[in-house]
């Protein structure tokens, strides 16, 4: 009798366990647990397969889940004098949870977009893109899909502009809107959602699609929560009012060295560094800073630098 009861109890818990395994993803993604949903969705968006989550949610729904801060503010472009001294300075960032680096580029017009040589077929590492373009520095830039599961960074999305020409998005309708991080002819850092037509009117010369904006017109954009993407490696870019560009890379996923940063951490670091404009770039295993012939940070991927399609380089 006891043996039969024991078997029934084991069977019950086995069934309950299977039901939990089957229903847990549904509860996480569609249940009432907002914080857990935000963390899971944010992690998927930073993974090698962010397209999977787009099968379940629209872009507007994803923006609401991860807490992207929408703003109706119009970006105020800086009046740059063009008297940059051409200097480049590297310094470290340290806190209890993370370590990273900031590279200061005095002349914003030295920053350009560079792409993998076989764009659309396979990516390259940040350092190889820099070397191929004879650049002194580089960071990873725009987002991409790895739809073949090989981690080759082969399929960028959104817009890519170099020397005023659309390398990606050329066939798009003029009114199509994408998140954009890039530069106009005067060296202003442009961040936010823009159409191809608007970017043309603003004189956009270099840029890629990613985000969200972190600082706009000198004001922080993330004022509630941590940005919704959890803790991890981060790459971001900012600009001071004098035109100086800030490359920020925070290492993560390495418990004995650096756990990582939130979007709000990245925002606050750049704000303290004097950024008047700033935006998030692709993070996670992609986060890489190359300077003076070497990778100065510690990328999170076990294989080293991740293959990516686009980088911001310093000529």
From TrEMBL:
The chain crosses the membrane at residues 12-34. Coiled coil: none annotated. Keywords: Membrane, Transmembrane, Transmembrane helix. InterPro entries: NAGPA (IPR018711). The keyword Transmembrane applies. Residues 133-314 form the Phosphodiester glycosidase domain. The keyword Ubl conjugation does not apply. This is Exopolysaccharide biosynthesis protein.
């Amino acid at each position: 009798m006891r043996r039969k009861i024991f078997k029934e109890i084991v069977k019950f818990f086995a069934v309950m366990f299977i039901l939990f395994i089957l229903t847990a993803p549904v509860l996480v993604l569609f249940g009432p647990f907002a914080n857990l949903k935000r963390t899971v969705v944010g992690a998927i968006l930073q993974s090698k397969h962010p397209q999977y989550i787009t099968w379940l949610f629209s872009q507007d729904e994803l923006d609401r889940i991860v807490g992207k801060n929408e703003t109706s503010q119009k970006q105020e472009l800086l009046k740059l004098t063009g008297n940059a001294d051409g200097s480049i300075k590297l310094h470290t960032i340290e806190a209890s949870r993370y370590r990273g680096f900031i590279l200061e580029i005095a002349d914003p017009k030295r920053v350009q977009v560079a792409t993998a040589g076989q764009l659309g077929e396979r990516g390259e590492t940040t350092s190889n893109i820099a070397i191929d373009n004879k650049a002194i520095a580089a960071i990873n830039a725009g987002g991409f899909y790895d739809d073949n599961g090989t981690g080759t960074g082969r399929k960028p999305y959104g817009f890519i502009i170099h020397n005023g020409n659309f390398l990606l998005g050329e066939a798009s309708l003029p009114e199509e809107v994408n998140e954009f991080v890039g530069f106009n002819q005067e060296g202003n850092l442009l961040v936010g959602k823009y159409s191809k037509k608007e970017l043309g009117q603003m004189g956009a010369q270099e840029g890629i699609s990613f985000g969200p904006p972190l600082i706009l017109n000198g004001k922080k954009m993330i004022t509630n929560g941590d940005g919704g993407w959890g803790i991890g490696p981060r790459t971001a870019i900012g600009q001071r009012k004098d035109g100086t560009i800030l490359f920020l890379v925070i290492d993560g996923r390495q418990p004995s060295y650096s756990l990582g940063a939130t979007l709000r951490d990245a925002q606050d670091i750049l704000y303290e560094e004097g950024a008047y404009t700033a935006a998030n770039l692709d993070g996670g295993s992609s986060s890489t800073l190359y300077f003076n012939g070497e990778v100065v940070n510690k990328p999170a991927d076990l294989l080293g630098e991740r293959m990516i399609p686009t980088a911001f380089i310093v000529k």
